[in-house]
Amino acid sequence: MNRVHGVISSMFWLVLCVGCQSNSKVHVYHAVLEENKQSILTNELDALGIEYRLNNVIPKRVYDNPTLFYFPGDLTQSIVDEVTLLVNKLGFERLDTRVFNHDNHFYSQGNLGLYFPALASKQVAPNLLYTHDCSGHDSRVVLRAERQWREEGVLSTHNVSGWWQYEAPYLTLIYTGQYGRIQQAYREEHHQVMTLQGPKKATTYHVLGHREYPVKLFNCDLRVIYAQ
């Protein structure tokens, strides 16, 4: 009788364990995907039978490949296979997997987080940026296709120009003129800002060097807010 009771108990816990694995929920951070991939994403999630929850927050961290974060012990081969198939359908070549820790997003057991590379696989710098987080200097920067940039603005009396370089997530502006050769580096951040029309996607380029250059533009962060 004790042996039978033990077998029944073991089967009961096995059923519970299988149930826990099949009910894992994937939190999908999809806001950085291109619009034409948004519908593909939800269609494939439903077709694969993946339990999911969409999240519109734009992560501050930049990922090279789609990345699945998991709670220790939660990751199974079936989940990896399903999510790998999903990201392949979206045009990505590989899926990275990482265990949760205190340096990144953390979920409770049974929850996973799926993150995508910002602006998908082909990243380009915006062609128009506005100064941000600086006092007394209101202007905009035009990034031209031939890798030249020019400052423009009604309140800017000493517009400057130069060359620019971009390799996500870093933007560099280079100036040569009366002050010699000066360059400023920026780090890109994709996020959301609140406007009079509600929350909008934005990209801010944060200054990485000091903010005491004679070229006033180089003492400012640069930002673009997208209409859609």
Largest sheet: spatial strand order: 6-7-8-9-10-11-12-13
Structural class: alpha+beta
Distance linking N and C termini: 68 Å
- How many DSSP helices? 3
The succession of helices and strands, N to C, reads HEHEEHEEEEEEEEEE
Q: How is the biggest beta sheet arranged?
A: 8 strands, antiparallel, barrel
The total domain count is 2
Poorly predicted parts = 1-22
Strand residue content: 35-45%
What does this structure look like?
With 228 residues, this protein is α+β, with helices and mostly antiparallel strands. It has two domains: 95 residues, Alpha-Beta Plaits (2-Layer Sandwich), CATH 3.30.70; 98 residues. The protein is built from three helices and 13 strands; from the N terminus they run H-E-H-E-E-H-E-E-E-E-E-E-E-E-E-E. The strands form two sheets. An eight-stranded antiparallel barrel has the order 6-7-8-9-10-11-12-13. It has a five-stranded mixed beta sheet with strand order 2-1-5-3-4, with no helix packed on it. Strand 7 and strand 8 form a beta hairpin. The radius of gyration is 24 Å and the shape is elongated. The protein starts with a helix and ends with a strand. The N terminus is likely disordered.
Main traits of this protein?
228 residues; alpha+beta; Alpha-Beta Plaits; 8-stranded antiparallel barrel; 5-stranded mixed sheet; 3 helices; 13 strands; 21% helix; 36% strand; elongated; disordered N terminus
